[in-house]
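Hi there,

I know you've been waiting on this one. I reran it after we fixed the sequence typo, so this is the corrected version. Both the input and the resulting structure follow.
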Amino acid sequence: MRFLLGCLMLTASAIFALADTQTRVPTGNGTYWSWTASTGTTWGCVDDDPASPDDATTYVYRQASNDNHLFTFSAFTVPAGSVSISLKVYYRVWRTAAGATQASAWIRINGNDYLQSSQGITETWTTSNYTWATNPSSGGNWTVDEINGVGTH
């Protein structure tokens, strides 16, 4: 059975004068990368907006259990003074045959991995998302520097 990932997107939301949302799509392979691209690069296969995915046209897949794949993203540019910052990960998945398969949103901060609870995957393309309203590394509210990746963040 194959597990397919069709799109992946990060959004950062913040309040600074007016509510603002910034979106990022993958730009490269991250710390872990063991999946296979249907064509081209792995990050190019999953850079669709979840609102208009190309589904089975471009995707990445894995056949072995517990294979992981992290991607890199360009930095956010949340303005100084912003508050109520959150980070949301969108992902769109499908499995090719019946069986227990799960996926989860995952971020890496300062060398540590933070995963949401796993979600079951069906034989239909499904978009899921998870929001980190606080920084899982510090346990506190996101700071502008943390969400923008400034310094050691």
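Quick highlight: Helices lie at 42-45, 144-148.

Best,
R. S.
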